[in-house]
Specification:
alpha+beta; Beta-Lactamase; Alpha-Beta Plaits; 5-stranded mixed β-sheet; 12 helices
Length: 339
């Protein structure tokens, strides 16, 4: 095989990494390293994410299916394994469970390993690893310069996707609370409906409304109302799971999408939110504190295949809002479940 023929699949792999439009597409490409894509190779990605930003950006893309490559987010690479934090150049060699068990479990029976560093701003932020049984990964047979080049391509492609995800997330953000906007919630709901149609299961939606917020605006001014809204938003967010998607969907309404959850499964979240909002008065500035409550509506859906995703998503939100209105009619400070 000529050198050109050897390089052709590597160049095609690089293009797929550099042109991916989302983390999901990037991971799909990363799962198929040239020469090992169909040869029993195991692939792993470990990323340092101490602020959880990457996790939030990934969730923001609405990826609901299991990724093709196991992605592990850690607070620090050194905490994961000291030898990973010390990875400054590509490394290949024999797999040893004592050294590499946190990259690949010993149960996979791997014998050889290739690790490529991923960097941002000159700092090591992750590792891309390929393991094989019986023979080294094909990429590890490349010379040191080519491996260093591949590590640079991996780093550049990840850097590009992070910047793109931040830009997209900015267009879906509510400027007052920092929460995602209603457009984001709508997109996430359609994705979850599609997941349910393909794999089965259900999705729940919870809508929360700040009781009597308009009275706060009328009596104490808009700035006081904005402070109250931000504080309530923070208390609600503190109870939302990382796997859920939350957004501000109205002037004083917040929506939460709960994947793989039915209405009953959303009740513990509603109860936690009620407790968090009521645990102490809300400071609205100028030494004024107010006792505030929220009302909530919960609805769930287990869609059959073939239905219109947008219509089903809109119906789910409408059902949750109708349940919310029933809770408010009872005086507020409680939740209702849609029939």
């Amino acid at each position: 095989m000529s050198q050109t023929d050897q390089l052709r699949p590597i160049l095609a792999w690089e293009r797929s990494l550099l042109t991916a439009d989302s983390f999901a597409e990037w991971i799909e490409a990363a799962a198929a390293p040239p020469g090992d894509a169909s040869d029993g190779a195991a692939v792993s990605l470990i990323v340092a994410d101490p602020t959880c930003e990457l996790r939030h950006l990934t969730v923001g893309e609405g990826r609901s299916a299991e990724p093709a490559v196991p992605v592990t987010f850690v607070d620090s690479l050194e905490g994961r394994a000291p030898q990973i934090g010390a990875l400054h150049v590509p490394w290949s060699g024999a797999y040893r469970a004592s050294d590499h068990g946190l990259v690949f479990p010993a149960s996979l029976g791997l014998t050889h390993l290739l690790m490529l560093p991923i960097r941002r701003g000159g700092q090591l932020v992750g590792t891309y690893s390929v393991g094989r049984r019986g023979a080294p990964p094909r990429l590890s047979l490349a010379d040191a310069d080519l491996l260093a080049h591949l590590a640079t391509v991996l780093s550049a492609s990840v850097d590009r996707l992070i910047d793109r995800a931040r830009l997209l997330r900015g267009s879906f953000a509510d400027p007052l609370t920092g929460w995602n906007s209603v457009r984001y919630l709508q997109a996430r709901l359609r994705e979850e409906v599609a997941r349910c149609q393909r794999y089965g299961g259900s999705v729940a939606c919870l809508v929360a409304d700040v009781d009597r917020l308009q009275q706060v605006n009328d009596q104490h001014g808009q700035p006081a109302g904005d402070l109250a809204l931000r504080e309530i938003a923070g208390r609600i967010e503190s109870q939302v799971r990382a796997s859920d998607a939350a957004a501000r969907i109205g002037s004083d309404e917040f929506g939460v999408v709960l994947p793989s959850t039915d209405a009953g499964g959303a009740v513990p979240l509603a109860e936690r939110i009620l407790a968090a909002v009521c645990r102490s008065p809300v400071d609205v500035g100028s030494g004024l504190v107010l006792e505030l409550t929220v009302s909530m509506g919960i609805a769930s859906l287990a869609p059959a295949s073939g239905g219109d995703r947008k219509t089903l998503a809109d119906q789910l939100v409408a059902s949750a809002i109708a349940a919310l209105h029933r809770a408010k009619q009872k005086g507020g400070g409680e939740y209702e479940i849609a029939p």
